[in-house]
Every structure is written in C-alpha cells, then in structure tokens.
C-alpha cells in the first residue's frame, strides 16, 4: 500500500492525548504568566477594611463647622425639600 506504515488507533490516541496535555499545560502556563504580570504583587487584602462592615460616622468637621451648624444645615435642607 502507498503511504507508508500506519499506526494503530491506540498509538494514535496516545499521541493525541500527549499533544493535548502538552497544549493544555502550555495554555495554563501562559495564563498564569499573564495573570502574574497583570496582578499587583504587593497587594495584601488584610491591609484594607472589610467593605461589608458598616463604617463609623466621621466625627471630624471642616474648620469652623460644629455639630450644631450641621444640624441647622440639615434642617434647612429638609425644609427646602417640602
């Protein structure tokens, strides 16, 4: 027969599996390398507060503003909404 020797289907399947595993491994390695280049290597999630926990109300006011002035402003805003 022309075309040379033929490989058995089992050998063909093993060769295809090896090629697929090599390809999958290469894709996984490329993905991991890209992920490492894009991510911040110095990021530490523990350095930031939990975003789901309610934060305490800020008690600092700009210079010259007191809680009484803020209450007055809030009353004026409420009256203007009516």
Structure explained in plain terms:
This protein has 82 residues and is an all-alpha fold. It has a domain at 8-40. Helices cover 55% and strands 0% of the residues. The chain contains two helices and no strands. The longest helix is centred in the N-terminal third of the chain and has 30 residues, at 9-38. It is rod-shaped, with a radius of gyration of 33 Å. The protein starts with 8 loop residues before the first helix and ends with a helix. The model has no long low-confidence stretch (mean pLDDT 82). Residues 1-22 are annotated as: Disordered.
Quick summary:
With 82 residues, this protein is mostly helical. It has helices at 9-38, 67-81.
Number of helices: 2
Radius of gyration: 33 Å
* E-strand count: 0
Low-confidence stretches: none
Strand proportion, as a percent range, falls in under 5%
Give a quick account of the main beta sheet: strands, pairing sense, barrel closure: none
Region (Disordered): 1-22
Which features does this protein show?
82 residues, 2 helices, 0% strand, mainly alpha, rod-shaped
Question: Layout of SSEs?
Answer:
Layout: H1 9-38, H2 67-81
């Amino acid at each position: 027969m022309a075309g040379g020797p033929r490989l058995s289907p089992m050998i063909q399947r093993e060769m295809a599996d090896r090629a697929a595993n090599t390809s999958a491994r290469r894709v996984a390695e490329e993905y991991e390398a890209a992920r490492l280049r894009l991510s911040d290597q110095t990021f530490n999630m523990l350095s930031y507060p939990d975003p789901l926990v309610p934060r305490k109300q800020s008690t600092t006011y700009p210079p010259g503003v007191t809680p009484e002035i803020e209450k007055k402003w809030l009353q004026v805003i409420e009256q203007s909404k009516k």
